[in-house]
Amino acid sequence: MSTNTGSTDTDGTQTDGTDRDGTDTRSGAGVSWRSFATAEPGLARTVEERFAAHTHHVLATLRRDGSPRTTGLEVRFVDGELWFGMMPDSLKALDLRRDPRFALQANPGEGTAMGGGDVRIAGRAVEVPEEDTGTRSRYAEEVEPPEPFHLFRTEITEVVRTSVEDEKFLVVQVWKPGEPVRTLKRT
Question: Per-residue pLDDT averaged across 49-74, rounded?
């Protein structure tokens, strides 16, 4: 039995990339957006609505030295997948090629109301190669991105929604593959 001595984030993940039982979470298998939406259709619909409310959102990637990089990004939900399209050789694309882990936060909009709550998605971004002309063509027909472009399909490892209920409770919903939504309420 091994002992993990790393510090722990609020979700139980060790800061060295392992969870409490020592499982490496850095390469954890994610699921397609369709799989998440099938498992949790209500939460998926709410998350999609929050992303549809604004065009630009915040993507966090990891730089070569491991430090975080945040940048704006347009995202699309097309054919049961969450897609990232990016300009050629953008720093975020190069980050994802090197380390596919990402965190994505929906634009909260103006003011403090955050109708629908604050939503975040974490996972891995898998680049669609140039040779996969069918997938790239279907995406381009739907989205009409400027050419050329990087295209990444996402594998979802976590979805979080934070909202306020009855102007009294902070409600946090957390979903991970293979688990039901966990709901936490705080006053």
Answer: 95
